[in-house]
Amino acid sequence: MLGAGILKGLAETARNFFGSYVSKDRLTTVQFPEERAPRIEASRNFPFLVYDGADAQQGLRCVSCFICEKECPPKCIFIEKSTDKKPDATGKPQFYPARFNIDVSVCMSCQICVEVCPFNAIKMDTDFELSTTGRFDDLLWNKDRLSKSNEYYNQIHPTEAAAVDAELAEARAKAAAPKTPPPPPPTPPAKEIAAEK
Amino acid sequence: MTPGTIDQIFVISKHWLLGYVPAMLQPVVSAILSVAPVLVVFPLLFAITTVLERKGLGRIQNRYGPNRVGPFGFSQPIADGIKSLTKEDIVPRSADQVVHFLAPLLLVLAAFLAYAVLPIGRNMVIVNLNAGVLFFFAVGSMVELAVFMAGWSSRSKYSLLGAMRAVAQMISYEIPLVLASIVIIMASGSLSTVAIVNLQSGYTSIWPHWFLFTPWGFAGFILFMIAATAESNRSPFDLPEGESEIIAGYYIEYSGFKFALFFLGEYLGMFATSGLAITLFLGGWSAPFSFLTWIPSYLWFFAKLLVIICAFIWVRGTFPRLRMDQLMGLAWKFMLPMALLNIFTAGVWHFMPAGIARWLLCSALLLAPCLLLSRGLKQGRKLQVRTYRFAE
Predict the structure, then answer these.
(1) Which among A12, A14, A29 has the least Cβ separation from residue B64?
(2) Chain segment B344-370, per-residue pLDDT in tens
(3) A161-A166-A170-A172 Cα dihedral, nearest 10 degrees
(4) Chain B CB within 8 Å of residue A4 CB
(5) How many domains does chain B have?
(6) Do A21 and B61 touch (CB under 8 A)?
(7) pTM
(8) How many angstroms separate the CA of residue B130 from the nearest CA in chain A?
(9) Domain annotation covers residue A38
């Protein structure tokens, strides 16, 4: 019949209109500052440095090998290597970054630094509320700002962090094993770095 | 205070104020006192409508709509107003500066002029012209001029194309709009809006004598509202604006407060046309039932106006837009013949004795051609559901 489609359409929108007042399930909008959608595990925006243990500066996994700085396509990472060695979270003396800066206004969130890091020291964050009042200094993050605990990493990327933890535990177990059997090969990337040095 | 006093409170207070003015100044002050409320009330209604529209459309699409500024988001228009006032006003370098400046002003002016003949309540009309309806349509045609001025002076292809579309659409739909209202003029024998409302304000037992409750009045109302939707460039006839083809149409080169003025003009035009529809078909300020006449007449006018606005919002939230040829086809192939037929039916109604036979004949005279016409227009045009190979 003529106009039946028009009436059907009007009925549908009327049902939506009144239904949205009756059932909350129809309204899918998350009212952001008050409500928050759960974080998406697979999301990423800017990198951060992972540390083990309680002390952020002592526990940094980074040994300032410069790989990420070299690989970074927009060159947003700046590292200054320490002149001395300090014990890391496992007690092994290591070089550490005296300065580690990332300019997040330059960073393009490509995750290449994460891919190349042989020590699982740099990972991608999911935090997105990053607005600041300063254009330059507030967006140039230093080592203190970048350091985040392994627990935090486990929290934001549970699956990935569990795999990383297992891998690290395995490597440490191998390193701690008695030296009498054929010496366990250190993790290959670490070897490369040693060779490079 | 009796209901009669409350009904006439604005008229009484105006006369009371005029008593303090020297006789020489009385005509001027009287005019100002009549015009000023219209200049306040209808822009305020525009502000409320923008929120209602955004919230209504949101709910229709299962969203919240604006709910941040003020209680339930109802202060949103204040924020919008401040925003558009403080925005930079950019005029294209090659634009015709004067015409570019005048176009939004003319649009708002034309929209406001139309309110001069709308009876908002009993004895509440700015001027009781004896050719009020004619004046309304004459002033309404100024909108086309403003639209074309905007499109032409911007010197942009998008605005020119948008203006051409808008003018073509408005002129095409002005014809069914006027023809649909002719039946009322025929029935009432007057062009004065006040006389038309007075004629409808009687009751048979509890039922009002609105022209809507006749076959030709009902058909005329439907035709009038379709044409009014097209006249005010609202969805589904919002062709002058098209994000995908011509972006914002004729007001693409306008920014800041001039853009807001276009917005205001468009809505004021819509209210004015709705107001005329109320005046012609829905009995103006008269109450829908005889036992509700104690409610002041102006409240009835605004209640009816709000109902029509809600209907406009509902329609906007429901229908997808027409294509340009469908738009023109609807105006010339369907609405024009139906409007002419409606005039004929009104004539038949006038010369037949009152009774059920008159009702049946007039309804048949309108319904049968409507069905035949729509079937005829559909012929040769297969409406089929599109099938997809992979999507389903």
Answers:
(1) A29
(2) 998 888 888 888 888 888 888 888 888
(3) 50
(4) no
(5) 1
(6) no
(7) 0.80
(8) 38
(9) no
